[in-house]
DNA sequence: CGCCAATTTCGTAGCGCTACGATTTTCCCC
DNA sequence: GGGGAAAATCGTAGCGCTACGAAATTGGCG
């Protein structure tokens, strides 16, 4: 009954005969043309210095002639790891993150890495999905924003030896590598600055504080620094994302509540909205109140009044994250789990305070 | 759960072979636990409806229990095509493109696609590299910005059957699919609007026109519409990227050149810079001059005066690009090479004119 | 000119998954 | 309950490349 005695002379029709090819020109074609083995071509592509110069140039010529483009998918599979870095941010519409991603893309592209991107819209569930998706590409590293993640996300990442960098926020509960600064400290700086200007009736104008946990931390830092100075600040909230519109709404709401003489904002975009609304109402800044933003966005130097703000060195974050990712990938030994870089933040005093 | 090194009993006693595993849990493990063949697991993952409900739920349970994450790299290789869409934009710092990428990412993620991103900084050589890199991932589609590409880029893409969408600009020389609008027409609209306001001494304030070919087209459209109306406009240039700072510089430069009464700007950010500079100089807008921007960025409604602008329906671009990409991937027959969607642009008249 | 080490090149066996066709099971109706 | 169609499941052969170890070649020097 077994099929063990198949004695038919004709070779059984083999299944899976005509599969679709992904590429027309493969490494083997280059090898053939350059009259070397595929191994040598592969080696040349990965470590040109290990191939004799003459052989190298022959291969180079063959690649050009055939227009060969290496297949990263196959390469990634064979090498058990792809040259992809997955970056997950809350939102690209937010200038900070757009900037960071942009800077990292430029730096990593130079090292032959590609960027897979995802945005969470501040949802931990969405982040979890994105991390799962990212992992399925066997990335060289995963870069997350902030330290606040779903438990499942942490578990998934822990079960994996992919380097993980959490950026834009520092703290103790980091998964692996951590680059950023303390948002509570930034909030504190804002409060102390306003107080140093003699302001005492203070409020924090916050957009989307429930979701944007980093803004919430700045708010909390602001609060405690005020309390420390014997001042009880107000927090005015708006549930929409930070925008100039939100800034206008928040100022209106604050003015309806009381006579404040100092405002710290979620970020510079909100602060700009405050400036606009004040202009419309004929309120003079900083005569009537002092205003401080966060982020040092470009327009802050040029609006009228120019914005006092706190600059979070986004470029330093991008630079450090990139360097650490590369160091980790190259197996540098001193970049251990728990490695942390504080990039700090500096206050930039301008016209609005 | 998973130990870091894999030494599951495998009969690999063959001449010292030990490669590194990419994953600890593979599809075969899920199959084993669910007591089905790997094929069935694969089928379930790709077309759940083709698997008996009971089998499906058994597999589902096994996946959960093992924490299995499919390997897209292996899947992509086997299926001759990955679920990646590569998007190449000039810059993520530019709000338009950040917005578009963001919208597309959200829409495509819903369909199980991932976004590989690159930015060219307006360099055609860089774009070429990025396209080459993109192709090496065998993406489901490639999305480019604009119609202006290096010859080699065109050749590479032509040698490939990957769907290509060029967005944000329409014209005749498109590679494959084209979604956008005519920038010359936008420039014309701006000119005609200023003229309709009785303005006759007109100038275009342009940032980075040498590189940003779309801004250059708006400028050219502006010019010809002016000429058509018997007006000879001036073009004031600044070689730095569009920013509020550039707006200030351009206004200063224009005022030093002559007495203009109408300005069209590269985009809203530049226009905002003009507003700021005018404020500092005590110039009243629109009493002294009318101002029109481009892009309908968020702050435009809220600054003082609010900005008259031209809105390019970025969301429509993102929506159309995404839909066309999906249609093409699903082999819809009527989306042929040369398919074009004009999303148009509409003028939004506000306080600055 | 022979010997050994260093340099360069090569052959082979997968990486984990999916397409394809074949095989088995289920279902329906006479 | 038997026959045939439909549904469900399976077995196999790669997809294109790289890691690995081994083989071939070169070079230096006694």
UniProtKB/TrEMBL annotation, chains A, B:
CDD domains: HTH_LacI, PBP1_GntR. This is LacI family DNA-binding transcriptional regulator. The keyword ATP-binding does not apply. The keyword DNA-binding applies. Keywords: DNA-binding, Transcription, Transcription regulation. Residues 25-79 form the HTH lacI-type domain. It comes from the Bacteria. GO terms for molecular function: DNA-binding transcription factor activity; transcription cis-regulatory region binding. Signal peptide: none annotated. PROSITE patterns: HTH_LACI_1, HTH_LACI_2. It comes from Pararhizobium mangrovi.
């Amino acid at each position: 009954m077994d099929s063990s005695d198949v004695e038919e002379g004709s070779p059984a029709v083999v299944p899976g005969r005509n599969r679709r090819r992904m590429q027309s020109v493969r490494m083997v074609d280059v090898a053939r043309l350059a009259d070397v083995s595929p191994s040598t071509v592969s080696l040349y592509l990965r470590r040109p210095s290990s191939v004799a110069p003459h052989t190298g140039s022959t291969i180079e010529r063959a690649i050009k002639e055939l227009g060969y483009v290496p297949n990263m998918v196959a390469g990634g599979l064979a090498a058990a790891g792809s040259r992809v870095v997955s970056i997950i941010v809350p939102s690209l519409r937010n200038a900070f993150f757009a900037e960071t991603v942009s800077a990292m893309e430029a730096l990593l592209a130079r090292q032959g890495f590609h960027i897979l991107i995802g945005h969470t819209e501040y949802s931990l569930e969405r982040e979890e999905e994105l991390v799962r998706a990212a992992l399925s590409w066997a990335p060289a590293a995963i870069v997350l924003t902030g330290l606040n993640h779903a438990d499942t996300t942490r578990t998934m990442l822990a079960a994996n030896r992919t380097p993980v960098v959490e950026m834009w926020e520092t703290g103790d509960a980091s998964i692996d590598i951590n680059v950023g600064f303390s948002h509570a400290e930034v909030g504190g700086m804002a409060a102390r600055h306003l107080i140093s200007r003699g302001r005492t009736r203070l409020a924090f104008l916050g957009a989307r504080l429930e979701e944007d946990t980093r803004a919430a931390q700045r708010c909390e830092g602001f609060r405690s620094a005020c309390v420390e100075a014997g001042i009880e600040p107000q927090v005015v909230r708006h549930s929409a994302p930070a925008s100039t519109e939100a800034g206008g709404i928040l100022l209106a709401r604050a003015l309806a509540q009381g006579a404040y003489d100092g405002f710290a904002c979620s970020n510079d975009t909100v602060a700009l909205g405050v400036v606009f609304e004040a202009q419309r109402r004929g309120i003079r800044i900083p005569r009537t109140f002092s205003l401080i933003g966060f982020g040092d966005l470009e327009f802050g130097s040029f609006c009228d009044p120019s914005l006092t703000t706190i600059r979070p060195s986004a470029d330093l974050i991008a630079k450090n994250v990139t360097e650490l990712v590369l160091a980790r990938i190259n197996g540098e030994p001193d970049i251990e789990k728990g490695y942390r870089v504080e990039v700090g933040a500096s206050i930039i005093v301008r016209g609005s305070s």
